[in-house]
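Support reply, case 0932

Customer input (verbatim):
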Amino acid sequence: MSADTPTPLHKPDPPPSEPAPPPAPAWIRELDMALAVYPQILLTGNVRDQFLLPEDGDGGVALPEPDRPLMPYSLEDIVESVCRARGYGALARQDNVIDRVVAWRLTDGFTFPPALRRMAEEDARTERDRARREDDGPDAEQEADEDDDTEAGTARLREIIIGTVRHTGPAIGLIVPYTDRLGSSRGPVAGQAARLLATVEELGHTARPVAGDGGVTPYNTLFWVVEKQEDLPLEFAIGSRALRVITVPEPPHDQRREASRYVVERLAARRTREGGEPVAEPERARATEALARSSYGLGVGEILAVGRMAADRGLPLARLDEAARLYRVGVLDNPWATQAVRENILNGEDYLNAQVIGQPHAVRRTVEIFMRSAAGLTGAQSASSPSRPRGTLFLSGPTGVGKTELAKGVAKMILGEDARPIRFDMSEFAEEHARDRLIGAPPGFVGHSAGGELTNAVRAHPMSVLLFDEIEKAHPRLFDLFLQILEDGRLTDGQGATVHFTECVLIFTSNLGVAAQVVRSSAQRTAPTGGTGGDAGDSGGDAESKEAEEAKRKPRLTRHDKPEMVREALRSAFDTFFNDHIGRPELRNRFGDSFVPMDFIQPESVPLILNKSLESVIARVREVHGAELTVADDPWEVLRVEAAGRLDHGGRGVVTAVESALVNPLSRELFHQPARRGEHLEVEAVEGEGEAYTVQVRRWN
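Our regenerated output:
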């Protein structure tokens, strides 16, 4: 066979008058090239996917031509087509379902190697014996010898490999589709598996091209197939010069567009068959592009499955992106598309300002971000993944100003009044091994089967609000996980399963920048630690002393500072933390304009916070005692003055004032004289200070 003989994946350049056909994917062209020069080929990566290629009319893969319809093919189909074009006489495959090697001819009159013929005869004999035992009854079946155990199967495969590689021609190929099952990637293999891998390595170096009628002839080729190269047995000769490693990539955007077009055309034809109106080309083009964009991270086979799901659910072409979301995360209802959520976001400022008092600027920025999410334009300004989380917030501000309350309000606004954010206190994840708590321990480690706290939570609730509290206290290694979530909207857990964050809202909180010194300065990070000279030590000490002096010159932020200055200081600390302290400027960039500074609570907000806290106390008395509680004007004013004096602690200071001046003395009163159901209680006076408050309560039925 001549080296320049056309194959189904290569043909001479067309005449100038013809449009140039699209080239076959690069990995297929590499596969065709490797057959002539490598006796073994390892196919890794996206090997379980389907591939859309033109049909040749006989069920095989054809030349890429503009007018030929595309059809989905498996990896084995493509290997068969390439081998057929190269003049291979037959192809064989290890079939793990029936635990045998099956073979089929690619050319008429091909004579199989003796090893394959012998195995075929043994398999036929085994089938006849099994049928006879079934006719003889269950007792005979129990007494039969079981020859298809693991060791026997591996020994059979080794013998077939030897017979295949030493076959004199025409060439034959053998596909081993689950190569990682031959042994462990974490420890040495033994027995027949070790013998097989050693044999394979030697055969790779001693193999020779088969005899031919001239020109370049191929080898008898061994095709190894594995999804992850790192899962191969340790003894597999991955570095052998006789082995060509070919990576099958995830489909890029143009291939996803072809698959989307394939889906759209079939859904449009289905609608016409069912009596609907024909779909115009502009509508098809819009549906194709929407599906191609929303299917980022999916394989061609999964895009085809999205089409089947859309047909099953009766979704129109305009909602194919919704079918992709359904396939990805399994959420049947999309609250972002409901009128209720849109109205909640439209009225979001009023709603959230009632939940979080004294933060109009932060609330306005938050609502703007979620308007963008509801409009489906999150990340629209970039060419990166459209599968990013629905919304991201980085709330920064002093303690007690309502960061957690704002997260709770967002959860209620989007998911309903009974919704709560899934909270992770990042101070509990300060150690390096904390990463495993979030995504699960790797195989072989304790707790592997339990999974991770974060991945388990999102898998159970694909649409949720995730709250990462005090993010600056997390170990720096964890920020790599957040980078992947914010960029691609997915994580791979310790068990190798993919968890999608596409429908999640991520909220990070921090009080960076409030204290006088928030991160180590560059002088401290680069101070000499191992020098032998006294000068070096002195210079390090000078740097630290200068840093301390600089910190003293930076006063702690207080509620008396102007809001603009507070926001600027918070933003500066945010940038410094990601740029210098943990060295993740790319993560800072992923947050974009989702950074939301929160102001100190000012005295004018005290009455609103106080009333909200008193409403909670009144509701608790009504629930527990069945009594009605009211607070007169004079004690209310005492509580306001006490709360205003504790504003350095933010809204929590107001709540603490109510606890000290009202709840504690009222509890003593009700402990000694419990309220009767239906009784009215009015607090007429609050007296005292510090921990010595008392209340005067008037009671009536």
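We compared this against your earlier run and they match. Two observations from our side: The first helix runs from residue 26 to 34. Residues 1-21, 140-148, 380-384, 516-540 have pLDDT under 50 and may be disordered. Please reopen the case if you see a mismatch on your end.
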